[in-house]
Amino acid sequence: MTTVSDAAPDPVAPPARDLLTPRARALERAALRHGGAHCAALCLVSLASTAAGLLLPAVLGRALDLLLAGDPATRWVARATALVLLLGVLDAAAGVLSGTADGRAAAWLRRLVTGQVLALGPRAADRFGAGDLAARLVGNAAQAGTSPAAVAALLAATAGPVGGVVALGIIDARLALVLLAGAPLLALLLRALARDTTACVGDYQRVQGRMAADLAEAVGGHRTIAAAGTQDRETARVLRPLPELSRAGHRMWHVQGRAAARAVTVAPLLELAVVAVAGYLLTRGEVSVGDLLAASRYAVLATGVGVLVGRLAALARARAATRRLAEVLAEPAPAPGTRPLPPGPGRLELRGVTVRRGGRTVLDGLDLVVPGGTALAVVGRSGTGKSLLAALAGRLTDPDAGEVLLDGVPVADVRHADLRHAVAFAFARPALLGTTIEDAVSFGAAAPTQDRVRSAAREARADTFVERLPRGWDTLCADAPRSGGESQRLGLARAFAHGGRLLILDDALSSLDTVTEHHVTRALFGPGGGRTRLLIAHRATTAARADSVAWLEGGRVRAVAPHEVLWRDPDYRAVFGEETPR
Ligand SMILES: Nc1ncnc2c1ncn2[C@@H]1O[C@H](COP(=O)(O)OP(=O)(O)OP(=O)(O)O)[C@@H](O)[C@H]1O
C-alpha cells in the first residue's frame, strides 16, 4: 500500500485529521445499505467465525481436563476438530462474501459519481481536473468500495476481544479484571492508529490525484509539448510529487510501525499477567489446568490488536477514498427541471443574464431575444462571452443571475429529456462518442432514423468523407482519423440529425473550408429550416447570411440588427479585423 504528503495545501481537501466528514459518513452508510444483504451475511459469517474461535479454547481445555483425569475425551476432541473445520469453511465464505460486497459497492459508487460528474458538466473538470476525476473514479472508488466489507470485518474482529474478556470472566472474574485494566491503553492506541492512517492515506491519494491531473493535461497537450521540445521538462513536472509520495509512504510505515511496537509492548504484558493470575489460581485449586490453557488462549484473543490493526488500516484506506468521492458528490449540480416544454416556435429569451467566471463578470445583465424560427449570429471580440451565451441558451450552464427562457418557459424548469430533444448543439471541436461513425452521428437521447442521419450528413457535407472511409458508416471511430474540418462536419451532421426547435452552433463552422462553409450555411439559412438558429460566428460572411446579428461587447449586447446595417459602423467592422476602430 501507499500513503501521503505534507505538500502544498490542496483546496479540495478537508482538514486532514478528520476521520470522516459528515458527507463521507453518509456516503459510507449509503454504500453499506446498498450492499445490505451481502454485508449482513458477511457480518454473520465473520461473527460465527469469531464465535467458533472463542469456543475452541474452551473445548480444548475441557478435552485436556478429561484426558488428564483419564476420562473418555473422544467426543470433545471430535468437537474441537469440527470447530477447526468450521473455521476453515467460514473463512472461505467470508472471503467470497467480502469480494462480492467490495465489487458491488465499488460498482454502485462508480455509477453514482459518474452520474454526478456528468451532471456537473464542465464544472467538474474546472474544479477537480480531468485526470484527478479519473483517479477518483478508478482507484478511489475501488478502495472506497471495500468500506462496507471492512466495517463488517471490523465489527466481527471487535467481537473477538470482547468475547475473549467475557470468556475470561466466565472462567474467573479476576482474570477479566486484569485484562480490562490494560484495555484503555489498547483502545487509545487503536484510535490514534485509525486517525493517523486516515490522514496519511488521504494525503497520499490527493498527491496521486494531482499527478493524474498533470498527466492528463500533458497527454491532452502532447502536440504542443512535442512542438516545444519540452518532453523532459513535462516528465519532470508530472513526476514532481514523487518525493511527496515517498515521504507519505514512509510516514505510513512509521504510523503502523509505531502502533505495532506499542502493541507488542502492551499486549504480551497483559497476556502474561492473565496467565500469571490463572497460574496462581491453579495453585489454589480455584481453576483447572484446562481453564489455565483456555485462559491463556482467551488472553491472546482479548488482546488481539494485530487483527484489529489490520482491519482498522483497511477501513482507514477505504474511508480516505470515500472522502474523496464525497468531495465530488458535494459539488452542487444543476437540478433538472420538472416542467414539460409546451409546443412552440423556439423563441429564445435571455433576461438580465449575468455570468461570472474566474473572478470576473463576463456577461453583465445581458438581454437578448431571438424570435422563433429565425437565425441569429452572435459576434464579438475574443473572450466577450459568446460561447458562454451559447451554453446558457441550451442550459449547458446556468447564469449567476437572470433567466433564460425557451418559448416562455425558464430552461432551468424544463424537464431534462424535453430540453435535450428541443435543443441541438454543434461545437468547434466536437467529441465523437460511440463505436462507429454511424453511432457518433446518431449519438443523442433518442437515436434518429438512418435516413435522417444520411440526409443530415449530406447537409453537413460529411457524406463524401464518410463514404471514403474503409467501412463507410460502419468504420470504427478509432479507425477514422479526421481533420479538424472533418470532425466539425460530423459534429454538424449530429446536430442536424437530431432536429429540435433550437439549433446552437458554437463556432462549429470555423474549421470548414470556404466552399464547404458556403454550402453548409446555405442549407442552414435556406428555406425550410424552420427552427431557431443561434450561431457563434467569427466570419463576416457567416454573419451576413443570418437574419440578424447580436453584437456582444463589454458583457452586454451592444446592438442587434442585420449584418449590412451594422457593417456601416467601423467598430463593428473592426470586430472582423476590417478596420481599425475609431
Ligand atoms: N470555466 C471558466 N473559468 C474561468 N474563466 C472562464 C471559464 N469559462 C470561460 N471563462 C472566461 O470567460 C470569458 C468568455 O469566454 P467565452 O469562451 O465565452 O469567450 P468567447 O467570446 O466565446 O471567445 P472566443 O471568441 O475566443 O471563442 C473568457 O475570458 C474566458 O477566459
Summarize the entry for a quick read.
The protein is an alpha/beta fold and 582 residues long. It is 63% helix and 11% strand. It folds into 2 domains: 22-330, ABC transporter type 1, transmembrane domain (ABC transporter transmembrane region fold); 348-575, P-loop containing nucleotide triphosphate hydrolases (Rossmann fold), CATH 3.40.50.
Task: Annotate the secondary structure layout.
Elements: H1 22-34, H2 36-68, H3 74-120, H4 122-128, H5 130-144, H6 147-171, H7 173-220, H8 222-228, H9 231-239, H10 242-283, H11 289-302, H12 305-330, E1 348-357, E2 360-370, E3 375-380, H13 386-393, E4 401-406, E5 409-410, H14 416-422, E6 423-427, H15 437-442, H16 450-459, H17 463-467, H18 484-497, E7 502-506, H19 514-525, E8 532-536, H20 540-545, E9 548-553, E10 556-561, H21 563-566, H22 570-575
Parallel strand pairs: 3-8, 3-9, 6-7, 7-8
Antiparallel strand pairs: 1-2, 1-4, 4-5, 9-10
